[in-house]
Amino acid sequence: MTRIVESPTVSELIIFVLIAGPGVTITYIGYQLPQFDIRTAFYPTVAGWGLGGLVLMGAILGFYSLQPGESVDDLSTVFILTGLATVAGLTAGIHNAQAQTRARELEETIAELERSNERLEQYQQYTDDVLDAIDDLFYVIGADGTLRRWNESLADVTGYADDEIAGMRAEDFIVDDDRDAAVAAVRDGFETGSVSAELDLCTKDGDRVPIEFVASTLTDPRGETILAGVGRDVSERVERERELEQSERRYRTLAQHFPNGAVGVYDDDLTYTLAEGAVLGETLPPAAGLEGSRLSEVFPEDTVGDLEPLFRSAIDDGETGSATTEFGGRNWRVWATPLRDADGSIFAGLSLTQDITEQVERERRLEELIDQLEASNERLEQFAYAASHDLQEPLRMVSSYLRLVERRYADELDDEGREFIEFAVDGADRMRGMIEGLLEYSRIETRGDSFEPVDLDAIVADVRDDLQVRIEETDAELTTDPLPTVEGDAGQLRQVFQNLLDNAIEYSGDAPPRISVAARRDGSMWEISVSDEGIGIDPDDADRIFEVFQRLHSREDHEGTGIGLALVERIVERHGGDIRVESEPGEGTTFSLTLPAAASDV
Q1: Closest alpha carbon to 471 in 480, 463, 481
Q2: Which of 120, 373, 446, 561 has the greatest number of CB atoms lying within 10 Å of its CB?
């Protein structure tokens, strides 16, 4: 029997399309949802809107059917209306979720900008504090000659307030006699890249202060060329030179009557400024050959080697001593003593030379040690002029030289000398540690690795291995819950747990450290807690411990640079999380930080 199948009518095809179309649309929207620039946290919002459209249409149809004489008997009509309502709800939900996503991204961007501004302000304040700690004048001059920046020393020396300085040009601080030279010096600095000049500064009260200026050109963040430099008060040197001139007259009279010998006055460069005596021109060089000449220019190398340490000891260290040397076939004893002004400051050295051919004696001094210490001190002093990150190498050199001195001359140093060397080495090491910590802090954003899934169980296990010696020495007990895999920089996260666990051991008090690490899920983030039963923290200090170089304890009680927790906070912030501390003195401490879950775990 042949079966005849009737062809569907046009109306039936339309009804089929209206029923099937919303279903296909809903399925397509669900498949393409990740392409709509919507955060996964807002997917439930989209679904809620779709379900809301379905429920609303169902309610409308139900209400319509309750009306007298009205009903919806055709199921195809119900399917069409509810499907279209669901599609409309999904469409509205997508727009709503996109709006919420953009709002959330805007909030996060604003928060990150606020954190960046705060860090920038902290670094700016740190830089200002460093510059204000310098006794010398620090200044930055623009191409128009106005001051762009200065330290407190400029205001202290000149007597002008900051608001007055802001409206002044560089030459306005200079006395009238030197003003043209000041303008020329600024111009030369910009043209040649560096300049040095000695000018008299005029204070607000009209006093003159001789200043030695040194400056170099730099490029500021806006790309403008500026002239940055320092100025050192050389009043003492100028006064010393004046007093030297007066003293020369007195000592020239003494020299003319010194028996069987000669008298000389010399400056910091060991240049003779005065020479008189009966033997000059006979067995010693004439006065005209000595005055204005350096020791090394008029005497042979062996004689210079005998006398230079003696002369240096007098003018640099204020010591009076003597030495013997041979010159011109004769033996000489030379005494050297410092010349001091009314304030007790050394401004020159005095030498007395006498023929002692019948008596020969040589005396060795510790000038090499003094020269090395002076060289080290000079390098340390230059720290005040260096406003850059490249400070570690000079500090490393200072430490090396001091340790070399300690090893070579340990037997010649008294307890106080060795203690001084130990203090200097410790200070240099701590300064280097602070600089390294600050550089590490500043490089968290720029030198970090890209994010990838990181197994925190493996990270904590590695840190435990690194701290194994301390754990055994302190009888510490470290317990950990199963930890998740997060999205982050493995090296930086290891630094976070290294610092937190090391702090927990360090501040455990007298009892053996008891430390626990736990984790709990919080939406798309994991909250990791590191708890201890140590000495605790005053709640008033909860924010301060995350600031750079902030310490709650003295170095005698606990070592460290005061930057460890600041690094932890910066790293956690780079990962989009935050960190907080809960503690009471004597009741232990819990640090809780949030990290993003791995993409595969979201």
Answers
A1: 463
A2: 561
